[in-house]
Amino acid sequence: MSTVVEQVTRGLTTLADYGSVSSASSRTESIETLEKAGEGSLAPQLRPKNKDAYESGQINVVKNYPWTPSAIDSSTIPYVRLIEYFTNESMVKKSLDSFGKQISDTVDALTKGVAKTGRTLAPYDEIFDKSDPTDFSYWLPYFNKTSYEINTPSWQKIDGVGDSIKKLSSGLLPGEAAGAVNAAVDFATAASAAGLAWQYAGVGIFDRPRLFAGHSERQITISFPLYNTIKANDWIKNRDLIHLLMSQNHYNKRDMITGVPPVFYDVYIPGQYYCYAAAMTDIKVENLGNVRMIANEDIVPDAYQITLTLSEMTMPSKNQFHAITNGEGRSFVNSKEVLASGKARANVDKETEAQIEETRKKNGAQKATN
What is the secondary structure of 198-212 as a DSSP string? Predict the structure, then answer.
């Protein structure tokens, strides 16, 4: 099987054959983006120019980009779909507030037997807020030898559970409450040790109860070439995609102390993989074949080799696994739909307030009559 470099240098038109038909000074952007000026010294945010059209932010590399010189049926190509979301201060604050509430609700559910119902992915909605999509989505060719993967480290021995509980209580509870929890844990640990020693005085206890400690978070690597030599303006389209990915995944500095984190992604591979939130932890773009300067502004090779690494920010779970097949992993909303749902909620709230006010007036009128 020929390598990418061999394909680039054999049988394809070279950049030299095009001369300077598409100089940097006369180029038009292949991805129409709208730059929303950032406040202060923040760099602009990038969104699709036509937010009303779903296709405007849909970057379908499988179908519309020169990643293979062969004639293909794009419907047969395996792909990974990435949905992009902004991270901002309000999202972080909302997530932290929700985290505290979730702990309270969990304790309440354990003590009162409250059952929570809803979508399979509902537990993640408040952890990673998806109310601010960038409206960019990416369909990328995905050829990977790994079909499924899950890694579960050794379950935690009961010996270390007491220390874990004490650390958790110290971080979440007020001083006196945390002290009480720690004292109770110390007593329980000592009592347990004494009981074991009494029952098995001359024998070392090697097999003890263990607690599940979690699954290891995974990474997926997406790698594909982009040819600059099949059509005259392919290099512009390819360059713009690379610039977009680089821009969206850079930290945006506001001042000496604060800034805005990069975007994060919802990741879906049909029938195989789903992750509610993942970060682009590595982007590598290599030059393949001959390299040429165009219009003194762009260094363009015969082809780019794109390698993207996404790291999970949510631990693997049965919820996410079942989202692969129950339809939740495939579905997503754009900013227009988020705005519409927000207005709907606001209208419901207004109607509720109006009903409450009307009830108050009726009750007040009845008291005055009495």
Answer: HHTTTS------EE-
Distance CA 335, CA 238 (A): 26
Looking at the fold, whether 276 and 328 belong to one and the same domain comes out as yes
Is 266 found in the same domain as 120?
A: yes
Contact 65/226 with Cβ under 8 angstroms? yes
Q: What is the pLDDT of residues 167-212, one digit of tens each?
A: 555 555 555 555 655 565 555 555 555 555 555 555 555 677 788 8
| pTM for the full predicted model | 0.70
Residues 121, 320 contacting (CB under 8 angstroms): yes
> Residue 183 CB: number of other CB atoms within 10 A?
11
Q: What is the pLDDT of residues 304-317, one digit of tens each?
A: 999 999 999 999 99
Q: How many domains does the chain have?
A: 3
My answer on whether 341 and 354 are in the same domain is yes
The CA distance from 195 to 189, in Å, is 10
Question: What is the amino acid identity at position 368?
Answer: A
What SS3 class is residue 274?
strand
Q: 232 near 23, Cβ under 8 Å?
A: no
Closest CA to 262 of 135, 111, 84, 97: 84
Distance CA 28, CA 48 (A): 15
CA distance 106 to 128: 18
Residue entry with tokens 């037997």: 113
Domain that holds residue 207: 156-211
Contact 134, 248 (CB under 8 A): yes
Q: Which one-letter amino acid corresponds to residue 151? A: N
